[in-house]
Sequence to fold (550 residues):
Amino acid sequence: MPQYPESPLMGQMMSQPLLISNIIRHADRYYGKSEIVSRRVEGDIHRYTYTDCHKRSRQLAKALANMGIKMGDRVASIAWNGYRHLEAYYAVSGSGAVLHTINPRLFPEQIAYMVNHAEDQYVLFDMNFLPIIEAIAPHCSTVKGFVMLCGREHMPAASKLDNLLCYEELIAASSDDYEWPQFDENSASSLCYTSGTTGHPKGALYSHRSTLLHSYASAMPDGLNVSARDTVLPVVPMFHVNAWGLPYSVPLVGAKMVFPGPAMDGKSLYELFEQEQVTFSAGVPTIWMGLLTYVAQNNLTFSSFKRTVIGGSACPPSMMKTLRHQYGIEVVHAWGMTEMSPLGTACTLSVRQAALPEDAKQAILEKQGHVIFGVDMKIVGDDGRELPWDGKTYGNLLVKGPWVISSYFKDEGGDVLEDGWFPTGDVATIDADGYMQITDRSKDVIKSGGEWISTIELENIAMSHPAVQQAACIGVLHPKWDERPLLVVVKKPGAEVSKEELIQFYDGKIAKWWTPDDIAFVEALPIGATGKILKNKMREQFKDHKLPIA
Ligand code: ADP
Fold:
């Protein structure tokens, strides 16, 4: 890490490290009665307060210390969004150890690889993941024990594991007589591996400082805009990029928190939204699809839901319009990545933009948006030279900031920065007002006759067709143009549309040569562990696809 010179005249303000434990301490002291409501893996609804959460987090921290966990040690979690997972967020990081959150939807071999790579000492897991744990345990040599997040009554009578512990017993046996330690704010706090679509996953190792700064910044009105007046339901999982930082930013502002647990289907989510009067939520587009389908099929409306942040992959404009116009929910399109903690940009309008005609406003809101203070970005050509901010020129998107990684855990991948900037792997435009729009991931971009075609734009148009439920576009080999776009479509249940009709639907909406050469109808698209469409799988699936040659 670079060192900076000291001034001969240093400021005279208190020096307090920015530590994660400060957040839960603050939530307890100033918002102690605010509720945390969880749908549990056990099936019921659990409720308690920030004061209860703080108490149990300290009990867990004390138990971990008794189990020999020291500063810098890694403790893993494989768990849904719920109060016990939240306790682990605070107990593990707050005590100076590192919480390694693991995505249960990955293959057991990938999970075992990450546990070994991280050298996890304990693994905390939700009880429905016991089969995964039993499968990986023999391959995890560093793990001293597996802690099942439940009470004694749910522990298995017999298990293949000889080092299985009961979470509630650990808590019960431990007092809350525990003081959060104070240490350097640059100490590691949590670890999240990228999905690793190519090669092994690589770890982003966050620090207390990066997490606290991200929490402050992301809570701002032009970011996630959360406050004590909100009831927040993070749909985005706590096992992927710390649920976009909500387990930190929500207690920081004292808002009520609602955790959906494993029940992520439209019906269960809708019930929780209504019962708990949720005002704000955040998640990837695929999750809203399930919720919106359920709400539409049952002719329902939302009585409290006011605002949602959608990101992780491009939010189709048709989805934005449905949420906004049909249900009165404000949609904020956001962009970020594991390596950025994750928030980089969010799309909200300035006063000047808010006065524009409806179409112009909509066009801006479809972009991934404006940086939040702390993040700096630029687009560059393949020669590394910065490109203009004209909203048209696209290039490789680079970022920097105090919550952007400087290198991967254990220096996997070597020196990843380019002149102090992190290359995101995304291709984007930036307009004169600094609003960024992703055109593609660089590995998904279609290169036709040396020119680039944005798959996101082709997908967004397809998804604005009333018969299209989901669409994804990939490049397929072409004898003359190298690659041409193939659009793969899932139709809405009961809806009909022909190839020709869909191709015609592009007329006048894009340059003629961007129009997909062919359309394939499928029952479902391959979705990865973080709810995103797996284009590498699709490319594999359609590698022999013969395009009609005009
Ligand atoms: P992974 O673990 O899949 O690499 P992340 O969850 O960190 O990923 O995903 C980061 C990537 O997701 C970004 O680099 C970008 O390609 C994509 N992404 C995130 N938000 C958006 C968005 N709003 N629009 C388009 N793409 C997005």
The pocket of adenosine-5'-diphosphate is lined by residues 194-195, 241, 311-314, 333-335, 337-338, 342, 368, 424-426, 438, 441, 530, 532 (CB under 6 Å). The chain has 17 helices and 25 strands.
